Amino acid sequence: MSENTAPLNPRPEVSAASPWTFPDSHHEQLESGLRVVRVPIPGQQVVTVELGIDVPLSAEDPAHLGVANLVLTTSDEGTRHHPGAELAEAIESIGASYDGACGLTSSSVSIDVPRGHLDPALDLLAEIVTSSALADEDVLRQMAQARSQLAQAAQNGPSLAGLAVSREVWPLGHRASRPTAGTASTLDAITTADVRDFRDATWLPAGGVLVLAGADVDGVDLGAFSQWTGAREDAAEEVRSDPIRADGPTRVLLVDRPDAVQADVRIQTRVPGRQDSRWAALRVACGVLGGTFGSRLNTVLREEKGWSYGVSAAARAMRDGGLVTVGGAFRAEVAAQAVRAALDLVDPGSPSLEDAEVRDARNHAVGVAPLQYDTAGAVASQVTTLEMAGLTGAWVDHLMADTAAVTTDLANQAWRELLPASTWRVGIAGPAGTLGPALEESGFMVEVISPSELLD
Question: Which ranges carry the Peptidase M16 N-terminal domain (predicted)?
Answer without folding.
Answer: 37-160
